[in-house]
Each structure stands twice: as structure tokens, then as C-alpha cells.
Amino acid sequence: MAQQSVALRGIKITQMILRLAFLVALIIGLGGMFGWFALNRATVDLHIVSGIIVLGAMITVASSIGKARKPGAGALWTGAVLVAVGGLMGLTLHIRGNALGIVHLLLMLVAMGLAEMGASRAKKAA
Fold it and tell me: How many domains does one find in the chain?
């Protein structure tokens, strides 16, 4: 029982970091997609770094939940794979049009939904 609480202790902080990084990436991405502001090298780099932080936080939460043997780790791992696929899609296809931008946005929204679902299932089971 003590090992499970140690494994689940950092989930709340990591989940807040995940949410904050996702919000930063979402605002920058939507701003660039809808032309609210011009995307320059610094904002694109911040968007990419925020995505990497989201991926790292998802992997951290998924492994913590998996170590505690709680339900929800599979949803987080699936979300992490979707973030990786969406990030690689953004880096390799150079998203400039709205069609690819919307696919990228939908992948990331589904991934974040899976992350929230997995974390909430683990909290309910704890």
C-alpha cells in the first residue's frame, strides 16, 4: 500500500504540468492557425517544446500509474503515442494549411482527452 501511494504521489503535479504545457501549445497553435498572431521561430519553438513537455508528462504519469497497478495507464500510453504521431506529423509535413492543422489539432485533443480519462480512472481506483 505504501508503494502505491509513493508511485501516485507525483501524478497531481505532473498532471498540472501536462495541462499547462498543453494549454500553451494549444494557444500558440490556434493563434497560428487562425492568424491571431504571426508565427515566428520563437513561437514555433515554444509550441514544439510544449509538445515535448506534454509527451514527457504523459509518459511519466502513465509509468507511475502502471507501477501502482491502477487502471488508466493504457489510455495514457495511447495518448502519448498519439502525441508522438501528431508531433512527427507536424515536424515532417510542415503544417501550413488548415486541413493538416485540423488533423493535428484533433489528434492532440483526443490524446489530451485520453490522458485526462486515464488519470481520473487511476484517481478513482486509488
Answer: 1
What DSSP assignment string belongs to 31-97? HHHHTSS---HHHHHHHHHHHHHHHHHHHHHHHHHHHTT-TTHHHHHHHHHHHHHHHHHHHHHT--S
Q: How many beta carbons lie within 10 A of that of residue 45, not counting itself?
A: 11
Q: Domain residues for 98?
A: 2-125
Confidence (pLDDT) at 3: 57
- Give pLDDT tens digits for 11-62: 888 899 999 999 999 999 999 888 888 888 999 999 999 999 999 999 999 9
Q: Grid coordinates in use for 42?
A: 520563437
